[in-house]
Design brief:
27% strand; alpha+beta; homodimer; three-stranded antiparallel sheet; globular; 16 strands
């Protein structure tokens, strides 16, 4: 068998629910908050099981757990609005994924045609009437008919492999742009634009680092959890927020590390590294340091300082032009 | 009204189908190829309307146009496999989105439990029996029960705002890692790791460039189409491939630019810039050059050369470590 065809995990969903969820998480999605008005009550929940369904008639769908407390209210409301979140709305996504009572207090919004909250800062709004409800195992599928849509400037927030992420242009597209537009460029390092070179190098380094982390047998969630617990114990809630992890994936990872004897959970709900966990965390630090040092081998102090100056200046100038 | 709440476009789906599709495109998705075996025939099509539906029972869904030639075969096959594509599988995605007869010839694959092709290099496989077919306007929703799943290392291919893209770590998560792991870092340019600084600067520059492009009133698709047509006429098929654009979005953009008198289409199906289109294309080039020049103002030749050397070296070393 082709070595590229060796899975990290495989099996029947019935055998290991966590492993099945991790396989589902390979499909990247945007993040939405679905809202509605139900009498005097505002409903809002974070959902990534959204999909476009039909253009004519204009239909979209999302799914909700059967046991969700908000299900009945969404059904009787008879409408909903889909708010497609922007890359800078992680805190908003976390708030609407929680069971907090007042989710709308800290969030500027405007009422849509059916009274559903349209969240400011979202990159898309779809205002829908509830068209149909379809049974779907432990979830229900809510199909909406879109009455009004709006699109705003900005980049989408992503959820992929258990964590929040952002998009970047496809590296091959940038390479292809080289033939067409002067903003992107040749492979020759001495020529071409800095934007292209930065993009290319940043991509390569991230990939190499990912390879390094995988070689250590670490997922992103594990890597970040070891890092955050090194200096201090944290609750699951804190770790999700600090490490930009999705709720379910963070819970699965914490449970797995406890089973492996790397973590313990105290009565206050805080997670601590065990002696074995601490040893592993320190080994990870040493490996990361060695990875960086190896890449920078034989680079002169002067060149490194110049690179830092130029990158710093570019970051500063683009920060201004963004604002 | 908050200026951030001014939409680029808004309205009823009935008024402008293209604008509605662009609003739907704000929700980012992964890309899948759905395959099946139907008698002696292999079926395969590129689909981004996939979603997870239920964990217990394990259900997933995707939708197919009513008028699709493959619909009946998928229904009678009674099973399908979902192949979640990796970031480097754009050509594969384009092939399975086309109407080419032999899509499987150029693609290594293995037959799954029901005979559906499992494509090599995908980052996820979900082998399903067809559980239910639900009416959904101009599409049908195919719900599958997952019998076997597999997960592979690698990053997902994305489709967002009409084009292919890839993921990158959330910049705030990297900043947050600073407190936890030494790989990521302080805001002080003179300290912290190069990986973090690169990531940060590359992000900022991309965002600034996006703002610049938006200020020009250009979408990514428009920007790339002007670029590719500057030197040579191309067919729609060529432009989709060269510019990493999705089929429908590229068609919509081309139709829009023709209506605005920027392009013409000849009898051979090639698109050409009109004199007005050529003038606009040249203005875009001048603006991009000015954007770059302004950012690099007062940077010494020596510093710029050092930066290029270091970035080039890092790209080269990480290329080796990836391979």
């Amino acid at each position: 068998m082709n070595p590229l065809m060796t899975p990290l995990e495989a099996g029947s969903p019935a055998d290991d629910g966590r492993a099945f969820r991790r396989s589902l998480g390979q499909f990247a999605t945007g993040v939405t908050v679905i809202t509605a008005r139900h009498g005097e009550q505002w409903l809002g929940m974070t959902v990534n099981s959204f999909a476009a369904l039909s253009l004519d008639p204009p239909l979209v769908l999302w799914s909700i757990r059967r046991e969700s407390g908000a299900l009945q209210a969404f059904q009787t409301a008879g409408h909903f609005a889909v708010n497609v979140l922007a890359a800078n709305q992680v805190a908003l996504s976390n708030r609407f994924a929680s069971s907090k009572a007042d989710k709308f207090g800290a969030t500027p919004w405007t009422a849509g045609v059916h009274g559903a909250p349209l969240l400011h800062g979202a990159i898309g709004h779809l205002e829908c009437t509830l068209h149909e409800v379809v049974e779907g195992g432990d979830h229900l599928l809510l199909v909406g008919r879109v009455e009004r849509h709006a699109r705003f400037g900005g980049e989408p927030l992503l959820f992929t492999q258990g964590r929040y992420a952002v998009t970047q242009e496809h590296p091959e597209a940038l390479q292809a742009d080289a033939g067409a537009a002067p903003v992107a460029v040749a492979h020759d390092v001495s020529r071409g634009t800095i934007l292209r070179l930065l993009h290319h190098t940043s991509n390569r380094m991230s990939q190499a680092f990912l390879g390094h982390r995988l070689a250590e047998g670490l997922s992103v969630a594990q890597f970040r959890i070891y890092g955050w617990l090194r200096d201090q114990a944290h609750t699951a809630e804190d770790l999700k927020r600090l490490a930009y992890l999705g709720g379910r994936d963070a819970d699965d990872t914490l449970a797995g590390l406890c089973e492996q004897g790397q973590l313990t959970r105290d009565d206050a709900g805080c997670y601590h590294l065990t002696p074995a966990g601490r040893e592993r965390a320190q080994a990870i630090v040493r490996h990361v340091e060695a990875f960086e040092a190896e890449l920078l081998q034989e680079v002169s102090e002067a060149d490194l300082a110049a690179t830092r100056r130029v990158l710093g200046l570019l970051a500063e100038r683009t920060a201004r032009s963004v604002a």
